[in-house]
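Justification of resources, computational component.

The compute hours requested in this renewal are based largely on the per-chain cost of generating structure records like the one below. Each record pairs the submitted sequence with a full structure-token output. That output is archived, and it is also reused by downstream analysis tasks.
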Amino acid sequence: MTGGGWSCPHELDGHCSKVRNLPCDPGMKGCELYGRYVFFDAGKNTRLEQKKAREARAGETRPASRTDD
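The structure output for this chain reads:
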């Protein structure tokens, strides 16, 4: 491969061997990339947005760290 790029190890002849041999669609549910990266298609970003919201809520509920002087 020239010019740099990425190739999924689960893609075989345009189909995903990880997700029931469906046509490869990077970021689809079950894909290695699902919920890890931001995609141009906003529909593929739902999981990532949910994950960030949970992390933000968890950060708000953590008690402040104490420093004993």
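The chain has a mean pLDDT of 77. Helices lie at 46-61.
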